[in-house]
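Design a sequence for this backbone.
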């Protein structure tokens, strides 16, 4: 995977879309990997007792998927500087989340670009936010 260079990036440039199938394994595995043992993330019965139709994704798994989306575009030599996200509609198994993003700011002095993004499922935006990365 090639690392993007700052001089190759233009304001308004779109990132390639990324489609993530939402599965029980992704949700529960992400929760356990991040040491989030809340039953709503791995126990369907417990989630339903809370009024949820199924287990639902935790914020740390969402954060990891946001980073994956941006890193697939910028490459491994970029340095993540800031991540600001807001959750919306929950992610449930059987759905898909499609990431879209674009370059919303460039700072030549620091070689930083800001990516504005959203991850949308069938109910609406699951996550929206910005990620700042420093490019070589």
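Sequence:
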């Amino acid at each position: 995977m090639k690392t993007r260079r700052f001089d190759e990036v233009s304001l308004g440039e779109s990132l390639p879309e990324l489609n993530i199938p939402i599965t029980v394994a992704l949700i529960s595995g992400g929760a356990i990997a991040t040491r989030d043992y809340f039953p709503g993330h791995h126990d369907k019965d417990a989630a339903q007792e809370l009024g949820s139709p199924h287990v639902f994704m935790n914020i740390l798994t969402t954060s990891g998927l946001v980073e994956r989306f941006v890193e697939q575009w910028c490459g491994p030599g970029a340095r993540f500087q800031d991540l600001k996200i807001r959750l919306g509609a929950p992610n449930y198994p059987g759905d898909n989340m499609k990431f879209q993003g674009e370059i919303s700011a460039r700072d030549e002095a620091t070689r930083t670009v800001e990516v504005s993004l959203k991850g949308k499922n069938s109910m609406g935006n699951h996550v929206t936010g910005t990620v700042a990365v420093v490019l070589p």
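Residues 6-22+57-134 form a domain with the Thiol Ester Dehydrase; Chain A fold (CATH 3.10.129.10).
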